[in-house]
Backbone:
């Protein structure tokens, strides 16, 4: 009967009744998706970025917000595939203005119609980027530049200096019986490292017109991983999991992204990173403007500010753990940071940059092989 | 009055339809597509090819492993929870039962992820179990307790214990004590009373708990992802991987997800059906 009489729930005499509260809650619940969806698009003075952890140095963000009054909202992404799925799902009403895209995925993002060409004329500091990256063909699609290169990442072999002796210099160490049950890797990435070990091309560029050859190369790597499954303790996907495995001593040898581990080394953990003699795959992380971005002007202001000083490149390196693409950024790093973060010319020579040319062919083959290794 | 009842039912019906059935229907639609998410200019093609892929040995292995693992988890949880529920229902003074039950339930007030990481802290190389064993001089090197079937089973049993404990306690608590006394008076020993009286009369609790635990174990993603190792990949992880892929493999993930749901519900229905067939008539 209380509901019928609309009994007050706050205080006697208050106009707020149970019915009113329930009604308001109902309206709010119905309206919530609309409000949540449209608010970022409609709000002024904001910038929404989907980025990896550490890709926006905290001090830079704070300074940018203070100088411009633009509130920077960061949504973390952990890898390219889920990020792309998310952007595709939001395509009609983008919730991000900037997103993170790796060089080899740019064409996939363009095909999915989630990023738009960059107006370089609006970036006064564009020349602060090393031309090796800013003029490379993989950031251009049909003549338009699509993204701002930020950081260079590479697959590395990481080992515990106290437990793994002598120091390994080949991906083959991951199959050494002495380290049985003491290794970890990301299946998709280590599959490509294994291809390198077997003399195949993990970028798939040489297989563009030879799909059967590509399949043979992937299958050979897959078979080696399945055959040696007892070598691996954990298939991981998140760098934080690997950090835990290494610090806890569960794992002494692993395939990894350099970025996740550089901070551990700086913190004094007995770890070293190696680009094995067979080489390693590498990729460039970029920021791109999301197609239909609601805060496009703010996005360009942010990108231009990011490129303004080499110090910001160094800060990016420190927070993300990868080599900056900004000219002169290394000058702001100390000796230990340089030794940990930067790639030597010799290491750079051994890197094989992943390319969009091979991406389409590799996606299906590798996805299937990953499932087979996991389930095998 | 009928209109009143209908209006009363409308809310729950809309909720079930909107929050549970609608996503499943959409998932069923996606499972029939060739690619999803797709480029805007892609013309969708519908078919059953994704369901057929379950027959491939790669996926079938993970599917069967999941069924087996869910069955094992259910059995282990039952063996652990039954004595616990029995102790609370029979060996605890009536006024303390609720308190002790709440003590057992208390850890479940925290999130599942926190509880899984707590298990990790116990079993890690530098965790509590290895720490105590080393301190006691029983071992020198830490035992490999994590990222293997043991840690997966331990974590799973811990996470789903409550789903078994509560139905069992409810069944045991309402078991007429005079039946047990009568059995004892007729010369039945403790084992015979358990086998011939207690277990048959708590069958419904066992079935409800088992069905719940089996369904939860079958679909769990966080436990195997965090505590499992290279040789403990469950089907839920395979499905999760398909949804995380950027190669438009949501349809395959949706088809596998629905197949897993159907298999789980079918097995749960079999368990409940078994109870119904053996129900002791009350009239």
Residues:
């Amino acid at each position: 009967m209380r509901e019928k009489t609309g009994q007050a729930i706050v205080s006697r005499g208050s106009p707020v009744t149970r019915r009113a509260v329930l009604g308001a809650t109902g309206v709010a619940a119905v309206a919530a998706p609309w409000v949540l969806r449209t608010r970022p698009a409609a709000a002024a003075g904001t910038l929404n970025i989907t980025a990896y952890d550490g890709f926006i140095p905290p001090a830079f963000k704070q300074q940018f917000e203070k100088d411009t009054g633009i509130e920077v909202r960061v949504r973390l992404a952990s890898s390219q595939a889920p990020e792309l799925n998310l952007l595709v799902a939001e395509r009609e009403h983008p919730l991000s203005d900037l997103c993170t895209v790796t060089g080899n995925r740019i064409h996939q993002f363009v095909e999915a119609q989630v990023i738009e060409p960059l107006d370089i004329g609006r970036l006064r500091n564009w020349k602060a980027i090393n031309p090796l990256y800013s003029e490379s063909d993989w950031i251009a699609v049909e003549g338009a530049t699509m993204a701002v290169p930020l950081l260079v990442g590479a697959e590395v072999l990481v080992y515990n200096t106290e437990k793994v002796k002598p120091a390994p210099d080949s991906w083959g160490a991951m199959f050494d019986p002495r380290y049985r049950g003491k290794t970890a890797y990301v299946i998709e990435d280590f599959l490509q490292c294994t291809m390198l070990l077997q003399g195949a091309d993990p970028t798939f560029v040489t297989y563009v017109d030879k799909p059967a050859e590509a399949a043979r190369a992937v299958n050979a790597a897959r078979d080696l991983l399945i055959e040696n499954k007892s070598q691996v303790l954990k298939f991981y996907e998140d760098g934080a999991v690997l950090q835990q495995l290494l610090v806890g001593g569960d794992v002494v040898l692993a395939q990894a992204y350099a970025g996740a581990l550089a901070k551990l080394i700086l913190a004094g953990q007995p770890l070293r990173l190696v680009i094995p003699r067979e080489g390693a795959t590498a990729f460039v992380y970029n920021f791109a403007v999301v197609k239909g971005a609601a805060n496009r002007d703010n996005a360009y202001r942010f990108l231009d500010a990011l490129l303004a000083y080499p110090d910001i490149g160094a800060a990016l390196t420190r927070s993300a753990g990868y080599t900056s693409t900004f000219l002169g950024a290394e000058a702001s790093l100390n000796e230990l940071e340089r030794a940990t973060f930067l790639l030597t010319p010799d290491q750079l020579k051994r890197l094989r940059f992943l390319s969009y040319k091979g991406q389409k062919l590799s996606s299906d083959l590798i996805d299937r092989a990953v499932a087979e290794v996991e389930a095998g | 009055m009928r209109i009143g009842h209908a209006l009363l039912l409308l809310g729950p019906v809309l909720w079930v339809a909107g929050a549970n059935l609608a996503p499943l229907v959409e998932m069923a639609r996606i499972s029939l597509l060739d690619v999803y998410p797709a480029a805007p200019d892609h013309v969708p093609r519908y078919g059953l090819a994704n369901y057929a892929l379950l027959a491939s040995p790669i996926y079938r292995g993970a599917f069967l492993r999941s069924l087996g693992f869910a069955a094992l988890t259910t059995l282990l949880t039952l063996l652990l929870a039954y004595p616990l529920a029995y102790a609370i229902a029979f060996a605890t003074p009536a006024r303390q039962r609720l308190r002790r039950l709440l003590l057992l339930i208390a850890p479940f007030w925290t999130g599942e992820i926190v509880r899984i990481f707590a298990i990790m802290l116990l079993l890690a190389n530098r965790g509590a179990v290895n720490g105590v064993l080393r301190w006691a001089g029983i071992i020198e090197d830490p035992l490999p307790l994590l990222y293997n079937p043991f840690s997966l089973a331990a974590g799973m049993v811990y996470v789903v214990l409550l789903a078994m404990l509560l139905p069992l306690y409810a069944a045991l608590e309402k078991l007429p004590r005079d039946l047990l006394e009568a059995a004892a008076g007729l010369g039945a020993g403790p084992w015979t009373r358990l086998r011939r009286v207690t277990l048959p009369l708590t069958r419904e609790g066992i079935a409800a708990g088992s069905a719940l635990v089996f369904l939860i174990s079958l679909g769990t993603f966080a436990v195997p992802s965090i505590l499992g190792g290279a040789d403990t990949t469950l089907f839920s992880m395979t499905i999760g991987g398909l949804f995380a892929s950027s190669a438009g493999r949501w349809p395959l993930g949706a088809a596998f997800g629905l197949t897993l749901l159907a298999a789980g519900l079918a097995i749960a229905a079999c368990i409940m059906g078994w109870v119904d067939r053996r129900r002791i008539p009350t009239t």
